[in-house]
Design brief:
Largest sheet: 2 strands, antiparallel
Distance between the termini: 66 Å
Order of helices and strands: EEHH
Helix content: 25-40%
Radius of gyration: 18 Å
């Protein structure tokens, strides 16, 4: 039987080389620092909870 090759998922160009795993102790091990990941997410992902508070503040 032939083995299936794992395809690398498509990633954003800023996250090329990003790899994340969980080790035998249950710890998350990543190839990027948490600060770098958080800054990427802050720039590229809208926070639903913050969106609701911004709309409420505009109404007042």
């Amino acid at each position: 039987m032939s083995k299936k090759k794992k395809k690398q998922p498509e990633t954003h160009k800023d996250l090329e080389g990003f790899d994340i795993k969980i080790n035998e102790f249950g710890e998350i091990v990543s190839s990027y620092s948490i600060d770098k990941l958080n800054s990427f997410l802050n720039e590229n992902v809208d926070d639903k909870k913050l969106k609701d508070t911004e709309e409420d503040s505009k109404k007042q």
